[in-house]
Amino acid sequence: MSKKLNVASGIAVAAALLTAVVSTNGSNARAEAVEPVLVPQVSAIQSVAEPVMQTLPEVIDTIVPVPAERAATLAEHVKAQQREGMLDREMQCLAGAIYFEARGETLAGQLAVGRVVVERSKSGRFPASYCGVVFQRSQFSFVRGQSMPSIAEGSAAWQNAKAIARIADAGSWESPAEGALFFHASHVEPGWRLKRLARVDNHVFYR
To answer: How many structural domains is the chain composed of?
Structure first.
């Protein structure tokens, strides 16, 4: 009897298991095989420093102011000179000679006198400095010993004399009597046996 019950129980268990398996395979809630999803690899963005080629604008010539040395007239050149500040002793002697000898004359006449002083200082025949030339004995009638009379330094005549002195010193404008070493007032006749170069205003210039 007990053997029969054991067999029956085994059969019942097996039937139950078989029923459960069949029931599971027939239901809508079936297990789906999970397939791996391939995710494409995204490579890291690399920034490469490359030179930026930028078209440069065309070069346009800059308008450069005309230098004073290329002024159209001597008057323009005089205006372009620095008129402020003190002159050193040498330039003071040169400007003084221009002022006392030719301040009532044209700018060209003043330049001609100034260039005589410059040329004498370079000639080897006269003292080698402007002051040496100006204060050489018996050369300039305005000189008193080793000094000049007082100068009206606020006057336009002195400002012009200073500008002409700078031009004469630099040789930046040609004198109408360029190369002259001597001059005298036009109203006298010293009888010099020298080469006459030009008459400018009230002076006659020689080499």
So the answer is: 1
Instruction: Give the model confidence (pLDDT) of 117-164 as tens digits.
Output: 999 999 999 999 999 999 999 999 999 888 999 999 999 999 999 999
Tokens read off for 3 = 């053997």
The answer to whether the CB of 198 falls within 8 A of the CB of 176 is yes
CB 207 within 8 A of CB 197: yes
Q: How far apart are CA 158 and CA 145, in angstroms?
A: 22
- CA separation for the pair 80, 160 (Å, rounded): 11
Tokens of 100: 């006392």
Per the structure, the complete domain to which residue 107 belongs is given by: 68-174
Report d(CA 139, CA 149) in Å as an integer.
16
Q: CATH no. for residue 91?
A: 1.10.10.2520
Predicted TM-score of the model (pTM): 0.66
Beta-bridged to residue 205, according to DSSP, are 183, 198
Q: Please indicate, yes or no, if residue 87 is contained in any of the structural domains.
A: yes
Asked whether residue 161 is domain-assigned, the answer is yes
DSSP 57-75: PPP-PPPPPPPGGG-SSHH
Estimate the crossing angle of helix 107-123 against helix 89-102, to 10 degrees.
Answer: 130
